[in-house]
Amino acid sequence: MASVVAIVGAGEVGLACARELAGRIGTVVVDRSLVAGADHEATAIRWDGAVLLAMGPSGSVEIPADALVIATGTRPLGRAELGLVGTRPAGVLSAPAACELAEQGLVRAARAAVIGGGDWAGRAVTALVGAGAEHITVVAPDGILTPLPPSDRITVHEGLAPLSVGGDPQVERLECDGAAFDCDAIVLAHGLAPVRNVDGAVSEGVRTVYAQPLDDPRTEGGARRAGAEAARAALALTGGQATIGPWWSSPNLPPSA
């Protein structure tokens, strides 16, 4: 039977990996959404080193594979990972949740505080401005890495470290080293961690390659490099010769001699 690499995630990295492997080995791309480049619209559930189990709209899908590439992207750091102490009030949101709620008109924050200065912070600030927030305080520990939308409703504080959250039952205050900010919502958008929720491949999975670059801001070049590196590692796991790239004009052909 021909070798197959299963790829979870049809984003830039996952598709870059699939392109690099095209013509060398079979690939099956799984994504939870119906997006271009995905072979299956399904959520990957479990990997046992030989078969990837996924659940789609029509039921379960079992995908035999010789290696697995996890390209499920990243998420901002959570409250515990940021070391935020204090009360645990309502109104402390991850940036992905805040963006989705704001875009659906479900965020009623008048004075929001956004922690972070990278891609997720920029997206959250844009969504909050669009949702009509009266004022947005941006606390950027590493500075502003992604341009923010022009608005006189945005105040930026670079170099501050967030320390604690105050308020009960609703968030009222964000304490930093040297400053404190009144707010009725806090959006966590600082730092990145890989999204890993496939049983058997959360950490050090069997015959598993992790392709989740932590670059912030994200770049297309970084995604291509991560995809190429993952393809090289996956090919080596299947017993193939790791002769990919790293760079040439066609992703499916080796470089000319």
> How would the global form be characterised?
elongated
Largest sheet: 5 strands, parallel
Provide the spatial order of strands within the biggest beta sheet. Answer: 3-2-1-7-19
- Helix count, per DSSP? 5
Instruction: Give the helix level as a range of percent.
Output: 10-25%
- Reading the helices and strands in chain order gives EHEEEEEEEHEEHEHEEEEEEEEH
Structural category is alpha/beta
Backbone CA Rg:
21 Å
Q: How large is the share of residues in beta strands?
A: 25-35%
For the secondary structure, the number of strands is 19
Contiguous uncertain segments of 5+ residues: 241-257
Oligomer: single chain
- Report the span from N to C terminus: 31 Å
Mean pLDDT: 92
Description:
- The protein is of the alpha/beta class and 257 residues long.
- It contains five helices and 19 strands.
- It has helices spanning 12-21, 79-82, 95-103, 119-130, 220-237; strands spanning 4-8, 26-31, 40-41, 43-47, 51-56, 59-64, 67-70, 74-76, 85-86, 92-94, 111-115, 135-140, 154-158, 162-166, 173-176, 179-182, 185-188, 192-194, 208-210.
- It has a five-stranded parallel β-sheet with strand order 3-2-1-7-19, with helices on one face. Strands 10-17-11-12-13 form a five-stranded parallel β-sheet.
- α1 links the parallel β1 (4-8) and β2.
- It is elongated and about 60 Å long.
- It starts with a strand and ends in a 20-residue tail after the last helix.
- Mean pLDDT is 92; it is low at 241-257.
